[in-house]
Write a structure and sequence with these properties.
With 288 residues, the chain is α/β, with parallel strands linked by helices. The chain has ten helices and ten strands. The protein has two domains: 192 residues, Vaccinia Virus protein VP39 (Rossmann fold), CATH 3.40.50.150; 79 residues, no CATH class. Helix 8 runs antiparallel to helix 9. It binds S-adenosylmethionine (SAM).
């Protein structure tokens, strides 16, 4: 396999018990699902509407189950699929799972076949150098004028990071904030974005494992306690995700898609971490 074909998170298995505790933006919020529902509802009226889901997000699958749609799920990891099944509220007899790499699905799935493709930031798991291939594959899988409903992790170049010292100060001032998922993750990302070892602005990779290691070093130096580690680390192993800027992201997708709408959850007024997420409704271009 070429070096650039490296799969970022091949062994990803966040078991349902842990995923159940995760909140938006890790999982889609109610408002995000509503944003995509308009597209689903409109397309569900079509005869033989076919939907492709990248990943196994339970909220997206429940939305499609409500409309009794014909769904194909694609993920490289069947364990994640089995685990996420436990968080489903509805059963969709018309849902099937295909185990494959999104970068190779053009060889496995029919082309020009799906009315809608849906995914909650699947490309966060893809090397930035592979984004073009990834979006091309989605393009190829969609029918003419097909729609891509896509959540994306995003980072504004104006984002001001904080240092590890500031992180510890903020934590000491109000440790209760770090018991809240959205605030805890917000401060951890904000710190990681200011450290080039954690977030590399060139390849856009954010390495949660490297961040956790830096925090571990602070513990070894006696700057924080063992108990603090509970609140100041991601604890998702060596998970790595890619965070494009809105400019880079729009430029990449505009090659294959026309942006019909985009959405930032109003929860972002209360929780700034929601600004690291954006949702799109995109239409397949006639040609590229
Ligand atoms: C953070 S987790 C799950 C959250 C994700 N939003 C979802 O919808 O499933 C990332 C998922 O992406 C899958 N994955 C990562 N790289 C992949 C690839 N190249 N092809 C297919 N699935 C991939 C993993 O197996 C895992 O289930």
């Amino acid at each position: 396999m070429k070096k650039t074909s490296r799969v970022l998170n091949p062994g990803w298995k966040w078991y349902w018990k842990e995923w159940e505790k995760a909140e938006p933006p890790y999982r889609p919020s109610k408002a995000e699902i509503k944003f995509w529902e308009r597209v689903v509802k409109k397309n569900a009226k079509k005869k033989n509407c076919r939907v492709l889901v990248l990943g196994t997000t339970p909220e997206i699958r429940d939305l499609l189950a409500r409309y009794k749609l014909d769904v194909t799920l694609v993920d490289i990891n069947p364990e994640m699929y089995r685990s996420m099944n436990k968080l489903m509220r509805l059963k969709n007899p018309k849902e099937k799972f295909v185990r494959t790499n999104w970068l190779q699905m053009d060889k496995v799935l029919p082309l020009n076949h799906f009315d809608i493709v849906l995914g909650d930031s699947p490309h966060s798991n893809i090397l930035f150098s592979e984004y073009d291939k990834f979006f091309k594959n989605i393009y190829l899988s969609l029918k003419k004028e097909g729609i891509l409903c896509l959540g994306t992790a995003i980072i504004s170049p104006k984002e001001k990071g904080i240092s590890y010292e500031t992180l510890i100060k903020v934590y000491r001032k109000d440790p209760s904030k770090f018991k809240e998922f959205k605030w805890q993750k917000y401060y951890l990302y904000k710190t990681g974005f200011s450290d080039k070892d954690v977030f590399n602005p060139k390849n856009l990779e954010f390495k949660e494992g490297v961040f956790d290691k830096k925090i571990e070093d602070l513990f070894k130096k006696g700057k924080i306690t063992k108990n603090d580690l509970k609140y100041l680390q991601f604890k998702v192993g060596n998970y790595t995700d890619t965070f494009p800027s809105p400019y880079i992201f729009n430029k990449t997708i505009k090659k294959y898609f026309k942006i019909l709408e985009f959405f930032i959850d109003p929860l972002s007024k209360k929780y700034p971490i929601m600004k690291y997420k954006r949702d799109y409704i995109l239409e397949k271009k006639k040609e590229f």
